[in-house]
Write a structure and sequence with these properties.
Radius of gyration: 25 Å
Mean pLDDT: 80
Low-confidence stretches: none
Strand content: under 5%
Shape: extended
Helix content: 55-70%
Order of helices and strands: HHHHHHHH
Number of strands: 0
Length: 151
């Protein structure tokens, strides 16, 4: 999934594919671009990045939205698993450090009057049947699988 393909999508299809609205996506691109422009040590040197900013953000969204492994996402973009991990971590840290997408700490959230009175959480649990341990059967199986040295 690349940006040049997704930018042709309607707003509803874009949201369905990425998990965010197109306006928010473009805002994320702006955040990452402005951060990278302002923090470059040598603005006119260096090799061109393999992925541009929109594709890097799509890579991160694909990881969070689809629960795919970094290995498989890397294959789609022609990257190694370790480089995919680095791009995801770098992009998410840039976005989290921006004030628009930064959540306050736990203590700050507890002090704020959020107006939330009820929260519903689905915590249903399914029991798993496990085989009963049978010591005699286990020992017999071990004894029969060990070759006898006396014979």
């Amino acid at each position: 999934m690349h940006w040049h393909y997704l930018k042709k999508f309607s707003a509803a299809s874009f949201k369905r594919a990425t998990g965010v609205y197109k306006e928010i996506f473009l805002e994320l691109v702006d955040i990452v671009d402005s951060y990278k422009r302002s923090n470059r040590k040598h603005p006119n040197s260096g090799s061109k990045a393999i992925l541009d900013t929109p594709d890097t953000i799509l890579l991160m969204l694909m990881y969070y939205r689809e629960y795919r492994t970094q290995f498989h996402i890397g294959i789609c973009y022609g990257l190694s698993e370790s480089r995919t991990c680095e791009l995801i971590r770098e992009t998410e840290s840039i976005i989290m450090n921006d004030n628009r997408y930064h959540l306050s700490g736990k203590k700050q959230l507890l002090r704020m009057d959020s107006g939330i009175e009820v929260a519903i959480v689905d915590v249903s649990e399914c029991s798993i049947e496990r085989p009963k341990k049978n010591k005699e059967a286990t020992i017999q199986a071990r004894k029969s699988s060990i070759p006898s040295r006396l014979s």
